[in-house]
């Protein structure tokens, strides 16, 4: 690819992204002019709510952009131009992505401010999730990055003008912080102490950052509340991907306290992805049972999930394993053991449960762990995998895996809930687990957007990113070879 073509592709892609971001911002501003105003700071007069003002401001913006779109009178060596394209892309595209992410996270709480004043809505909410868990002004960080990135990519007088004015956003940020402090008081002060304004606190590498807070057994056991709540809500949808009537009954009739689960910030995309994860885990269980009707399934970290009822074929031997307090709740609210259904009240890291299920060692085994292993350290997971291989050669293991960065990001995203800092283990590729010992073999893996999914249709624009970076996937391993 020659330099001119590469430059044109990058510049056109950047231009399309800029227009998408601008349209998204203007849509929020247009809707915000019709909402009831709240607190203000500075000289935030009625003009901030006038659509005529934004039409005029847009005309000025596009006028400056058009009139100044003249190349700078400089010539660059091809090698220097390549480095400018690389550096500009590394600034511009992440900056635009951060701006869009910030706008998406704000939702209905977004409105414009100026260096003269800022205005909130009467029902304004303090958003502290998404990129706002990292910095208080992610959209402004994105604008700064994209402004200087655009200067390197396009080298026009327009980009010089906007890069020169970019630092004015610090004045706007100051105005906004005045208004937010007046509106939210102590809540805002605590947020400021926890989250920096512009520069995120990245003081450790991603491989160790998420191990700052070791999870206690009480912390981990209470994580069953969130999936229970989400399955109950999903089951009541007309287009539900799974139906779990027991989850509905537990949440709506038996008085299970799900207040902690409600603290977790979940938008529609994250809710759908969580349920799809559960549905795919069900699929792996059904496929195993179809191949081995009288096989043995051990559901690690079962919580209050009713997967056995959803996939039972009338022959499979099933073990639900979780910490003693969780199993006690299962007995109380769901029921006790049956002829083919058993409960194991212990940690998966203990040896006691292995002795119980070893009586079926001649039968095919499947071990399922949905959002469980991420709460352990890598050393603990490796020890568990090797013990399963040695006790049950030929067994299959299915679990969801997260990249180290995703673990860190999830802990930051949940920083304002009681689930903060629990996740610990992440890995980059499934082949790493294959290297833990002889006979461990990756059979397949599944990820979002691998196949068409109606509930993810509104988010198809994310599909290329998921296919490229492969985040939050389900991995299917065989542990050794079956004897005989």
Describe this structure in words.
This protein is 49% helix and 11% strand. By secondary structure, it is an alpha/beta fold. It folds into two domains: 3-194, Four Helix Bundle (Hemerythrin (Met), subunit A) (Up-down Bundle); 217-479, 3-Layer(aba) Sandwich (Rossmann fold). Strand 6 (365-369), helix 17 (378-391) and strand 7 (395-401) form a beta-alpha-beta unit. 31% of the residues are buried.
Short précis:
This protein has 484 residues and is α/β, with parallel strands linked by helices.
What's the level 1 CATH class of the largest domain? Alpha Beta
Element pattern in H and E = HEHHEHHHHHHHHHHEHEHEHEHEHHEHE
Biggest sheet overview: 7 strands, mixed
| Average pLDDT taken over every residue | 82
> How far apart are the termini?
56 Å
CATH topology of the largest domain: Rossmann fold
CATH superfamily heading of the largest domain: Vaccinia Virus protein VP39
Q: What's the number of structural domains?
A: 2
CATH-scheme architecture of the largest domain: 3-Layer(aba) Sandwich
Net shape? globular
Indicate the radius of gyration in whole angstroms: 26 Å
How many DSSP E strands? 9
| Low-pLDDT windows of residues | 203-221
Specify the structural class. Answer: alpha/beta
Estimate the helix proportion, in percent. Answer: 40-55%
Describe the structure using short key phrases:
484 residues, alpha/beta, Four Helix Bundle (Hemerythrin (Met), subunit A), Rossmann fold, 2 domains, seven-stranded mixed beta sheet, two-stranded antiparallel sheet, 9 strands, 11% strand, globular
List the helices and strands and how they pair.
Elements: H1 3-32, E1 37-42, H2 51-67, H3 78-106, E2 117-121, H4 138-154, H5 157-165, H6 169-184, H7 186-194, H8 206-209, H9 217-221, H10 225-235, H11 245-252, H12 259-262, H13 268-291, E3 296-300, H14 307-311, E4 317-322, H15 324-333, E5 341-345, H16 352-357, E6 365-369, H17 378-391, E7 395-401, H18 404-413, H19 431-434, E8 440-446, H20 463-469, E9 473-479
Parallel strand pairs: 3-4, 3-6, 4-5, 6-7
Antiparallel strand pairs: 1-2, 7-9, 8-9
Helix pairs in contact: 1-3, 3-4, 4-5, 6-7, 10-11
